Amino acid sequence: MSLKIRLARGGANKRPFYSIVVADTRMPRDGRFKEKLGTYNPMLPREHEERIRLNTERIQYWLSHGAQPTDRVARFLVERDLIKAKPRREQTKKNQPGAKAQERMREEEERRKQAEEEAAAAKEAPAEEAPAEESSEEAQA
Question: What separation, in Å, do the N-terminal and C-terminal C-alpha atoms of the chain show?
């Protein structure tokens, strides 16, 4: 029997209120559960202390017995340092340009860097030559 720590919805229409419960995965969302572990009231501001109430001792007990938190409940538990945050998966690469377009962008970036380096070298070169010209002019005078 696999267990989940999840939210069970209560409250009226447009006024949600959730109980944090441990339940068998085969039971419906608002159906039978083993134990109530806390509450979540999304209508309260984030800073309000009554927004999320957790019975940490019982949560640790159920976690030690193999209960898996859902994504939303896992966020609450990470905030209270009861579990470690799951590593985030790498984003898909479908939104990135294709290989040829990336190659063109790299070439364009290299050309831009070369142009900047040449411009910087051109600025430095006249500054160094100017004193040399002045000294040659002074020598002729």
Answer: 102
User: Are the beta carbons of 82 and 18 closer than 8 angstroms?
Assistant: no
Overall pTM surpassing 0.85 (yes/no): no
Angle (CA) 17-22-25 rounded to 5° is: 105
* Domain's final residue, options 79, 111, 130: 79
- Strand 15-24, strand 35-40: pairing: antiparallel
Whether 3 contacts 61, CB under 8 Å? no
Amino acid 76 reads F
- 91-107 pLDDT, tens per residue? 777 888 889 999 999 99
Take residue 118 and report the two structure tokens written for it: 């040449």
Whether residue 88 is contained in a domain is answered as no
